[in-house]
């Protein structure tokens, strides 16, 4: 584990609030299915939840690049490259999802 604080620490409460809201959206989707809600209405809510998760992902990625990658690059070229490679793998996973 890195010795420095993660980039998102300064906005941790904001991220937790967003994730709790997304958790509520997931419970709402479950209720919609249980109540036999019209499929297009469910899909609309799935889209909203997906966008909310993407917003969290992009925020975390931005924080990671601005803090973790920069910090590693200041340590050494090898550490910086390793963090860039790690970020690229995460971006690839996000794009494929």
From TrEMBL:
<keyword id="KW-0186">Copper</keyword>
<comment type="similarity">
    <text>Belongs to the CsoR family.</text>
</comment>
<protein>
    <submittedName>
        <fullName>Metal-sensitive transcriptional regulator</fullName>
    </submittedName>
</protein>
<dbReference type="Pfam" id="PF02583">
    <property type="entry name" value="Trns_repr_metal"/>
</dbReference>
<dbReference type="InterPro" id="IPR038390">
    <property type="entry name" value="Metal_Tscrpt_repr_sf"/>
</dbReference>
<dbReference type="InterPro" id="IPR003735">
    <property type="entry name" value="Metal_Tscrpt_repr"/>
</dbReference>
């Amino acid at each position: 584990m890195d010795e420095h604080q993660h980039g998102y620490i300064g906005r941790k409460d904001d991220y937790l609030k967003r994730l709790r809201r997304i958790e509520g959206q997931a419970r709402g989707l479950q209720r919609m299915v249980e109540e036999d809600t019209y499929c297009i209405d469910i899909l609309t809510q799935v889209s909203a939840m997906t966008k909310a998760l993407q917003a969290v992902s992009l925020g975390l990625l931005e924080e990671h690049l601005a803090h973790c990658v920069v910090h590693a690059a200041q340590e050494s070229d090898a550490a910086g490259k390793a963090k860039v490679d790690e970020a690229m793998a995460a971006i690839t996973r996000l794009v494929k999802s």
